Automatic annotation (TrEMBL):
Domain of life of the native organism: Eukaryota
Entry annotated with the keyword Signal: yes
Domain SET: 143-292
Keywords assigned by UniProt, alphabetized: Signal
Pfam family, one: SET
Signal peptide segment: 1-19
PROSITE patterns, alphabetized: SET
InterPro entries associated with the record: SET_dom, SET_dom_sf, SET_domain_protein
Protein's recorded name: SET domain-containing protein
Source species: Lojkania enalia
Length: 431
């Protein structure tokens, strides 16, 4: 599974948009996927460096050949590499970055889960300064089994994640740190990149390494297997303003659905990918997330899934293209009206309630922060501070699941909740 951090820029609800009442409802969705960088094929050359020769043989990597480098590794571990347990292996300086990239492994990270990061020396220091590394309590409850799921191979779907028990709104499904994080570059050639990423994987503790290597891949070529797995399983993580690819082995088992029953977000400071339930799930039902923005027109979503994830989307919201696109259109029209703060606006609590219903009808419970937000404003605008508070509260709840607490969107609703009557929206449509 590929993708990704979705930055939902909620420009339309910012008070500044009041200035121009006809400002378009702007929801910019920035996403990028590694599929923009083609995986080319090539054969491995044996390396000059004897220690790493072994790393080039993937079968050997899966089995225990890695152990033959144990001696040098153990002596490395005794040396001082700061927060890292292994000597960083570095590329030459890359023109496009103005720095070299190195493999930084901490095999004792998070109680022995381990982590390997391929990044610049400067960014490596930034990673090491994150609470994930510095604060012993930061990852409490992370990288532990939640008891909510099991995996099974489903016909035509590969491995899927299923509910182990009845799950309700808000239940945690997973919370894991990545096995591998890699700087997003396109300067290294495939073979060179594979060499470093293999070092990164080989230095992980056995369980984490095996978890990584058992993931799905797209092309099936062994000599580029580590990249092939990244391609099929990556999320993007922004650290220090720089995109990194991140692979979370457990989380990768979540398949795509157009009407997902779970929502995820990444917390960069904890380097953790969190997944929570957005509507009741029965035992043995599949747990799903959306790999695309669910409000894009069907054709765009299908294209994205095809080019990024190599599958054709056949779930109901893809098959019933006409109906789905009509609803999406309706949602956009409603949002436009609700975002119109001019004297002639038709925005009202009734329209907001209708918007909420449409999202539910589409199975987009995990994206309800937008209609909840509009409802909070619409109720406040007619002077119903009580309902405004209720919806602002609910918007925050979904934002926590979808974007995490660090998102600026949280502030919008915290502001309203502080004192609805002092909020810019209060009484604005009372006439
Ligand atoms: C590895 O990460 C842990 C945090 O999980 C940290 O306490 C430790 O100092 C780091 N470095 C080494 C060399 O273990």
């Amino acid at each position: 599974m590929c993708l990704i951090l979705l930055f939902l820029i909620f420009v339309s609800l910012l008070p500044t948009s009041l200035a121009s009442s006809d400002s378009p409802s702007t929801q910019a969705l920035i996403q990028q996927c590694w599929h923009e960088y083609p995986l080319t094929t090539a054969l491995f050359q044996s390396s000059q460096n004897g220690e790493h020769d072994i790393v080039f043989q993937l079968n050997g990597l899966i089995q225990s050949t890695v152990h033959s480098t144990q001696d040098s590794r153990e002596s490395s571990a005794r040396s001082n590499y700061g927060p890292w347990t292994h000597q960083p292996a570095c590329t030459k300086v890359l023109q496009s970055i103005g720095s070299n990239l190195c493999v930084y492994t901490n095999s004792s990270f998070s109680n022995g889960r381990g982590i390997s990061i391929f990044t610049t020396p400067t960014l490596a220091n930034q990673f090491a300064a994150l609470p994930a590394f510095m604060d012993p309590a930061a990852l409490d409850g992370v990288n532990t089994f939640s008891g909510a799921w099991y995996t099974e191979t489903l016909p035509g779907k590969g491995v899927a994640m299923l509910a182990k028990k009845k799950l309700k709104f808000g239940d945690r499904v997973t919370a894991y740190t990545p096995a591998l994080i890699a700087y997003l570059e396109d300067e290294l050639d495939t073979i060179e990149r594979e060499k470093y990423w293999r070092i990164a994987i080989s230095q992980l503790p056995e369980d984490t390494r095996n978890g990584y290597l058992s993931l799905a891949y797209i092309y099936g070529q062994e000599n580029i297997r580590v990249q092939d797995i990244v391609k099929a399983n990556t999320f993007q993580l922004d650290i220090g303003g720089q995109n990194h690819l991140a692979v979370f082995p457990e989380t990768s088992r979540l398949n795509h659905a157009c009407s997902p029953n779970a929502q995820y977000h990444l917390d960069p400071s904890l380097l953790t990918h969190f997944v929570a339930v957005t509507r009741p799930i029965s035992p043995n039902e599949e747990i799903t997330i959306s790999y695309t923005s669910p409000l894009e027109p069907t054709e765009i979503r299908q294209q994205h899934l095809q080019s990024g994830f190599h599958f054709s989307c056949t779930c109901p919201r893809c098959s019933a293209k006409r109906t789905t696109d009509k609803t999406i259109q309706q949602i956009q029209t409603l949002q436009k009206s609700l975002n119109d703060w001019s004297a002639t606006s038709s925005g009202s609590p009734k329209l907001a309630e209708k918007l909420i219903q449409l999202y539910r009808k589409e199975g987009l419970e995990g994206f309800l922060d937008v209609p909840y937000g509009f409802a909070a404003l619409a109720y406040n605008a007619v002077g119903d501070a009580k309902r405004a508070e209720k919806y602002a509260q609910q918007a925050r709840e979904i934002i926590l699941m979808k974007d995490g607490k660090w998102t600026p969107n949280m502030q919008l609703w915290s502001e309203l909740l502080r004192d609805p009557r002092a909020h810019w929206s209060y009484g604005r449509r009372k006439r």
